[in-house]
Design goal:
Number of strands: 14
Number of helices: 8
Number of domains: 2
CATH topology of the largest domain: Rossmann fold
Helix content: 25-40%
Shape: globular
Radius of gyration: 18 Å
CATH superfamily of the largest domain: Response regulator
Strand order of the largest sheet: 2-1-3-6-7
Strand content: 15-25%
Oligomer: single chain
Order of helices and strands: EHEHEEEHEHEHEEEEHEHHEE
Distance between the termini: 40 Å
Length: 226
């Protein structure tokens, strides 16, 4: 994989670069928010590792900016901050996962592997269908009534899981585990936030409510032509 590491700490940056290159990855580095944003916007990467605290800005703004510009490259955020609200904010600006410092190389690679698995189709399928809604697994776009709709990585992975499990109740715990590969924290609302984002984009193109909220149980994805 071609990976961008945005990290100002030279010790951490050198360690992460060495671990990634040992696994056969092609690694580019940036030491500032500005340089990281520029490289992310003007180059094609398979993964971005992004520190939160940078000398000229922060990882929140970098992640939000590249998502606004249409960059869908998976992002793993690194931070020494352990607070739950920090993790929620990271997910809300479009990051795919969060890893707290200090960490070991095995955990880093496990996180990257998990993100890569979630970002890749599970099999040779090219498209999923659910009534008038289609999911293009190659371009990673949602299509409703023949209109293509761009999604963030988190929105896309959530949609794929919903469509593959349509017609049954899915709990927030199940979504946290299978879409984000993390333990669900009842004190956070990031799952509801992403469901809200996905619903909004669907409602811009269809009057049908594909995602039904099942009180105290979870959600059910339904097709409009079943």
């Amino acid at each position: 994989m071609k990976i961008l590491v945005v990290e100002d700490d030279p010790t951490v940056r050198t360690l992460v670069k060495a671990v990634l290159e040992h696994r056969g990855n092609d690694v580019a580095v940036a030491e500032t928010a500005g340089d990281g944003e520029d490289k992310a916007l003007n180059n094609k990467f398979d993964m971005i590792i992004l520190d939160l605290r940078l000398p000229d800005g922060n990882g929140y703004d970098v992640c939000a900016k590249i998502r606004e510009e249409g960059v869908t490259t998976p992002v793993l955020v690194l931070s020494a901050e352990h607070e739950t609200d920090v993790k929620v904010k990271v997910l809300n600006v479009g990051a795919d996962d969060y890893l707290t410092k200090p960490f070991n190389s095995d955990e880093l690679m496990a996180r990257l592997d998990a993100i890569a698995r979630r970002s890749t189709s599970k099999d040779s399928e090219k498209e999923l269908t659910c009534g008038s809604l289609k999911v293009d697994l190659i371009t990673r776009k949602m299509i409703i009534n023949e209109e293509e709709i761009d999604l963030t990585n988190n929105e896309f992975n959530l949609l794929v899981y919903f469509v593959r499990n349509k017609g049954r109740i899915i709990s927030q715990e199940e979504l946290a585990s299978n879409v984000w590969d993390i333990h669900f924290d009842t004190q956070t609302n990031y799952i509801n936030v992403y469901i809200s984002y996905l619903r909004k984009k669907m409602r811009e193109h269809s009057e049908f409510d594909f995602i039904e909220t099942i009180r105290k149980k979870g959600f059910m994805f339904q097709c409009d032509e079943d």
